[in-house]
Amino acid sequence: MTGALLLGCGGSSTPSTAGATAGVGDLHVSLERPRYLVVSRKVEIILRNQGANPISVDTLQLTSEAFEAVEPTLRSVDVPPGQRVDVPVPYGEARCGNDITEHTVRLGIGGSGPQEWELEDADEAIGLLHSEECHRQAVEAAADIDFGMRWRQLDERSVRTTLVVRRAESPDRIVVDEIRGGVIWSLKTLGPQRTPALALPEGEDEAEVDVQLGILRCDPHGMAESKKTYRFPIYVSLGEAEAQYLEVEPTGSGRALLERMLDDCANG
Q1: 91: closest CA among 100, 99, 103?
Q2: pLDDT for 95-107, tens place per residue?
Q3: Residues contacting residue 29 through CB under 8 Å, at least 6 positions apart
Q4: Is it true that 4-121 and 142-267 share their CATH fold?
Q5: Which helix (H) or strand (E) holds 6?
Q6: Per-domain residue ranges for the chain?
Q7: Where are the alpha helices (DSSP H) in 143-251?
Q8: What is the pLDDT of residues 181-234, one digit of tens each?
């Protein structure tokens, strides 16, 4: 899926929970799923004010039987008349195996208690998001994917190690389709171009591939821009299922080496 996927909208002009806040009947609520937010486990609540007066929203919370509950997002949002405001909100871990029947958004309007807007016609699309999350959980349970124990610094900006897949629960073929670097560090497999990056065939318990990490930048602006300096995106598939986004993060002596190299670069 690319772009934003419309999951549904609270098409009714009034919230499902009665409230006395002026103007709430003019607030229409929908939900979108931009891909750039999914990696941080968030969706966007879309607030549209179709009335003549401003509406102030101070808390937002997605509630669905598909996901574990999370704390409300506390944020003061003013929605001018005739305008749309998009607000990212988190969602919890998927409740795999559950029947999914209701999806609502709880909003605090103008300092009032939470009121609920139903997300109508959202079953199919939220079901897709739920299915992706459950596939991701299955991949995480199927194998342990980590950097190896051996780290070797090549020069002041690059280091070599391995990426290792160890079988856990699943007997299926496990494939690391792609690995990526970030703002600060590059990450690539060594040798000829590999597609996929790494595969663990059925019947085998462990596989690894040599990888190299390199410092792309260590300037203050880049360091401030980086939100996941030591977390590297990987895409992993189980059997014939679609690849799922995961992250791998170095620990122990490898993490210490990367931190020291980055400090030396920034202070050099």
Answers
A1: 103
A2: 887 677 677 888 8
A3: 9, 10, 45, 46, 47, 48, 105, 107, 117, 119
A4: yes
A5: strand 4-10
A6: 4-121, 142-267
A7: 220-225
A8: 999 999 999 977 678 999 999 999 999 999 999 999 999 998 888 889 999 999
